[in-house]
Amino acid sequence: MPSSPIDVLSRHLERVTICEPLSDLPTLAEVLDAIPDPRSRRGRRYRLGPLLALALLAVLGGATSLAKITRFIAGYDPELRARIGLPGPVRLAASTLGRLLARLDGDDFDAATCAYLARLAAAPPATGTNGTNGTNGRTALLGLAVDGKTLRGSRTGDRVTHLLAATRHDTQTVMAQAQVAAKSNEIPAFTPLLSGLDLTSVVITADALHTQHEHARQIVAAGGHYVFIVKGNQPTLLRRLKALPWREAILNDRTDETRHGRREIRRMKICTVRPGLPFPHAAQAIQVKRRRTNNATGKTTIVTIYAITSLHPGQITHAHLAGLIRGHWSIEALHHIRDVTYREDACTMRTGAAPRIMASLRNLAIGLARLIGWTNIAAATDHYRSHPTDALQLLGLTT
User: Fold this and answer.
1) Which of the four pLDDT bands, split at 50, 70 and 90, describes residue 11?
2) Before 78, cis peptide (omega within 30)?
3) Is the pLDDT of residue 292 over 90?
4) 187-198, pLDDT tens digit by residue?
5) Nearest 5°: CA angle at 395, between 17 and 106?
6) Which of 75, 78, 97 is nearest to 86 (CA)?
C-alpha cells in the first residue's frame, strides 16, 4: 500500500516536479475514517470514512451538489466500493448524506484534513517567489495568507456561514480553517485560527481588517513574522505611513507583468522605521504603487498601497518581500476557484455544518491537485471525472 498519494498521482502528469512523500504519512482513507462519527451505532449502513472518501473523490471530479455526489458514489464499480469499505449495493439519498454532513463537527474535520495537507506539503520548494529563500545565509521563510470567505448560498435569514482560513502562498493548501461566530466578524477568530500552527519561519500576510495590535503580538510571540496592509481602519498609523519621505526613498523592487488582458507594473519602496511606528514590532514600512492598464480599453489606473512588516532590513531580499505581498492574493485565487469551478456561492446547503464540510472538501480537493502538480483545477476535475480509477488512488488502496 503506498504511503502517500503523491507518488502514484504524479503518474497522471508529465514533467511535474513532486516533493518526496513522507514515509509515515497515513492514507487519506485512514485520516477520514478517524473523524468522529456523530451517528448512533444502531442503523449505520455505511462506514463514515469510506463515505467521506468517496464524497471527496466526487468533489475532485467536479461534483458541486449533494445530488451529484450521491450519483457519483452509486456509480462506482461495486468491486472498487467493496475494497474501500462499502460492500453491496449503495442506495444513498442526497438528503441522507446532507444530514450526515450537517451533524459532523466542522472543527474536527478541518483539524484532520488540514493536518494531513500540512504534512503532505511539508517539503517546500528550495526557491520561489512566494516560497522560501535560504540563499546568502538568510532564513527560509514561508508565506501564509489569512483571509475570510462568505458562503453566500448558505444564507438563512440573517445568518450565513463565514469561514476564515490560513493558506500557503506556494501551494494554495489550507493549513487551518475556522468558522466565524454568528453576529461577529473575523477579528476574534484570528487568534484561535493560528493558535494550533507552528509559526516558526512563517510570514503571515493579511488585509487591513487584521492589522490589529494583538494579532501582531501573537504572531511574533509564536516565532513568526507579519506583513499587514494598512488602510483607514488604522487612521493614525496610515497617516504616519503617508508622511514618511517616500520621494527620497530609493526604488527597491519593480515588476512588469502582462496577463489576464492587462499590463501591471508594481514599484515597491521601503522605509526603515525609526524611531518607530505606533504598532507592535513594526520594523519596516512599505509603499507599493500599482499601475494597471487594460489592454482592450487602454484605461490605466494607479493605486498606492501601504504596508508594515516585522521583518528587519536584510532578513529577506526585496524581491522576496515583494513576492510575499503579491502572494497574499493566492488565497483570493483559491476562493475564485471554489466559486467558478465548484460554484460554491450557488450551493444552497444551509443545515448545520454541511456548508462548512463541503467547503473543506473543496479545499482538500484543490490542495491535493496543486500538490500533485495540476496548475489548472478545471482540467484536473475533467481528468478525474473521466478517469475515476485514477482518483481512487488518493485513498491509497490502488497502485
Assistant:
1) low
2) no
3) yes
4) 999 999 999 899
5) 100
6) 78
- For the chain, percent of residues with pLDDT exceeding 70: 87
| Beta-bridge partners for 150 | 162
Q: Among 135-149, 233-247, 264-278, 377-391, which stretch is predicted with the lowest mean pLDDT?
A: 135-149
Q: What is the residue whose three cell numbers read 465548484? A: 342
User: In this structure, are residues 240 and 277 in contact, taking their beta carbons and an 8 Å threshold?
Assistant: yes
Q: What is the 3-class SS of 35-95, one letter each residue?
A: CCCCCCCCCCCCCHHHHHHHHHHHHHCCCCCHHHHHHHHHHCCHHHHHHHCCCCCCCCCHH
Alpha carbon of residue 160 to chain centroid: 20
- Return the amino acid letter for 394: L
Q: What is the pLDDT of residue 26?
A: 78
pLDDT of 319 reads: 95
Cα–Cα dist 253/391, whole Å: 42
Q: Of 161, 213, 158, which Cα lies nearest the Cα of 191?
A: 213
**What's the CA gap between 371 and 21, in Å, rounded?**
11
Looking at residue 228, what DSSP letter applies?
Answer: E
pLDDT in tens, 74-113: 888 787 777 777 777 777 889 999 999 999 999 999 999 9
Partners of 176 in beta bridges: 166
Q: How far is Cα 110 from Cα 182, in angstroms, rounded to an integer?
A: 19
Question: Are 395 and 84 in contact, with CB atoms under 8 Å apart?
Answer: yes
Contact at 8 Å (CB) between 279 and 216? Answer: yes
Judged by DSSP in three states, 305 sits in: strand
Query: What is the residue whose three cell numbers read 449503495?
Result: 90
Residue 359 CA to residue 252 CA, distance in Å, equals 39
Number of Cβ within a 10 Å radius of residue 372? 19
CB-CB contact of 30 with 2 (8 Å): no
Cell numbers for 295, please give them.
489592454
Q: What is the rounded CA–CA span in Å between residue 73 and residue 77? A: 9
CA 332 – CA 154 distance, rounded (Å): 20
Predicted confidence at residue 80, as pLDDT, reads 75
Higher pLDDT, 140 or 284: 284
- Residue 61's identity, in one-letter code, is G
